[in-house]
Amino acid sequence: MADQLRAHRIEVPARYEAEIRESWVELQGLDRTAPVDEPVRSFRTPVSDRFRIRQMRFGNFHRCLFPEQQFHSDGERRFAVLLEDEEDESVKWFRPGKRDLRLFWSADHQYVPDFVVETSSLRLLVEIKDVDDVADAEVQAKANAAVAWCGHATKHAEAHAGKPWVYLLVPDVAVQSNVDLNGLVQQYQCSGGERLTT
Q1: Which terminus, N or C, of the chain has the lesser number of Cβ atoms within 10 Å?
Q2: Separation CA 45–CA 177 (nearest Å)
Q3: Domain spans in the chain, listed from the N-terminal domain onward
Q4: Domain 38-190 bears CATH identifier 3.40.1350
C-alpha cells in the first residue's frame, strides 16, 4: 500500500528548513561491503578490472581519516590519489556514510557525497560523476541540495571563525594526474541558482 501511495505522490519543489546543531558526532565513514578474503591493495595501483572496483579494498593512505576505503569508480580512486598528492599538507579527507551528513535532496531521499575534504582554507563536499551523468535530473537535484547545505554550513562557520564550505560536481574524466585540487575547485565549484552542469 505504501508503494502505491508513493507512486502517486507529487512532490512540490520547496525550500527545506536548515537545522544546525552544535554537537560532536563520531565519524562512521562509508559502510564497507568487500568480501572478507579481498586483499587490501594500494590506492595508487591502477585497477584493470573496473567492474570489480566496488568490491575492492584500498589502503596505504596518509591523509584519509580511515585506514581503508572503497570506491564506486576508478574516477573516485584517482581523486583519492590527487588528494594524497596535494601540495597543501593540511589536506584531510574521508568518504562519508549516511550517519555522517544529514543532507536530503527530497523529502525522503538522503544524499551522501563521495568525499568530504578539508584544506587549509576550505571544506569541500565532492561528487565524482561519470561525464554522461552530470546533467541527469537526479544528480542536479542532489547538487542543488548540496549547494544549499554548503551555504548554511558556511554561514554557521563564518559566525564561529570557521572555513567556508564548497560543493564540487566533478566529471570523472577531469580527474587526471596533471590537475590539482585547486584547479578542480576553480573549474567545478557549484553555487546556488545556476545550472550545475559542466
Answers
A1: N
A2: 13
A3: 38-190
A4: yes
